[in-house]
Amino acid sequence: MESPEPRIGAHVRSALNSVPHSPLIDPLRRAFEAHSGALADIENSFRNFTSHAQTAERARYFFHSWSLTNHSAMCVSGIGNRITLRLLDERNGIDKPRLTSALLALHRISDEDLGALGGTLHADLFYEMAGLFCDGDAWLSRGFAVDSARAFKEYKNRSGLRHPDLMYALLSTTVHEVYTHGEVEFILPLFKDCVAQHFDIDEKQARRRLAWISIHCGPTEPEHFRHAVEAVEHYCAAMHVDPLAYDLEALFGEYIENKAAVMRDLSRLLPTLN
Ligand SMILES: [Fe+2]
Ligand SMILES: [Fe+2]
Question: Is residue 35 part of a domain?
Answer without folding.
Answer: no
